[in-house]
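Table S2 (continued). Query chain:
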Amino acid sequence: MQDGQPAHARLGSLLIAASAIAFSTTGYFTRLIELDVPTLLFWRGIFGGLFMLGCLALMYGSETVAEFRSMGVSGLCVAILSALATVCYVSALRLTTVAEVMGIAAANPFVSGTLAWLIIGEKEHWSAIVASIVALAGVVVMVGPAAFGGHIAGAALAFAMTFSLALMIVIMRIKKSVSMLPASCLSAFLSSLVVWPVSSSQVPAGETMMNLALFGVVQFGLGLLLLTVGTRFVTALRTSLLNRLQTVLGPFWVWLAFGEIPQLSTLVGGLLVLASAMAASLVVQRNQTAS
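Corresponding output:
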């Protein structure tokens, strides 16, 4: 089947939406686990990497090592960019507000779409472009105009995270014929390696370790695995747009678990993001079916 056929587009959209659901649990787990950020990320990367490595072993068996070798330079770039985005994200949160990081990350669909157009000539349906604008407006409503006034270094790191993720998605689109699952697995271990020198040497135990395992497997491992597979079937702009669903769902899980009632602006902006992502997917799939 061709990449543009409805079945593949529908499957890719579902996988990316599912990855956004997994990624959206970040706030829940970081509130639940009372550890410093480097230690949290270290164990998240370890468990996420082990989970993906186990999935790869089940899929490829004795050919697992060969799959890592076959990912080539492009796979290594994907792994580095993914790990870099993780480090920049955490560092940005330490230097500026969560709202500002969310606001800057909302530009990801535009960055991804522009890079995909410039590098591989990937054109997008007008509905997805309009939806991206609506989604950006929704995030601005969520975080508020006052959010964009944080530390310059924090904003720069947030932009670096956004650009890294966008470039990673474009490389995955270029190398659709090559499985990037090994690269995603490698990126998990790389993210742990980067924060290891500043993480705690004390090994967590009991319930904390169990929650860390869930954090690594559900939020990181499963989310990255679904995103990696789904990106092969969906354009860069729509991949980034659908992934913005995590911005909407993040406050929802925290509300359910910890009783933190979202502000009205969060609800209104979240509905805009959710509606734009759903509308773009439905319109594009309808046009593909008609053609």
